[in-house]
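so my prof wants the structure for this chain in the tokens format not the other one, which i didnt know existed until like an hour ago. anyway here's the sequence
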Amino acid sequence: MSSFGEICAMFTGIIETTGFIKNISVTGSNRTFWIESPISQELKIDQSVSHSGICLTIEEMNHTSHKVTAIEETAQKSNIEAWKIGDIINLERSLKLESRLDGHFVQGHVDSVANCIDITEKAGSWEYQFRFPKKFAELVIEKGSICVNGISLTAFDVKKKSFKVAIIPYTYEHTNIKTIQKGDSVNIEFDLLGKYILGKIRAK
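here's what i got, hopefully its the right format
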């Protein structure tokens, strides 16, 4: 979901690094964020970067931080209005054509938000359960790919309105999944191929 409506780059759902929100300003229905991160100085103006699953366009940057703006459409489909100063944000630069696809195809177009309803520690790993709107039930399948806050994950124990994901220690330590608590909302992007297939079936 690009903040300026342009065709967004492709991502893999493999988080490159994290940053944190330094400043937030609101102008009309637009929300502007300054994010401090290890890759900010390497970014370029007009570059698309996934921010916790939301594709946003780089507007400015300096040696430590970069600036992005989200418009009203982005706010309506994501959890961006709940972001606050100090929050950790998952970051991923766009996929290069010569890169290996270690996750799955992700557009950064958030489909909906989901709410965390349970967290279970499993002796070194974690299981998170999320509830999502029932109207998207056909897009979540057992052992299928799903993107949660920009992280490529595998859904299991899928119900009509909920699913679980398993989090390994590396993902837990290197993304913002460790900050999620019961009741928190996350950004969800359903599998791109699944959306195309379902669209074709419904069009018949």
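also thought this was worth mentioning. Residues 17-93 form a domain with the Elongation Factor Tu (Ef-tu); domain 3 fold (CATH 2.40.30.20).
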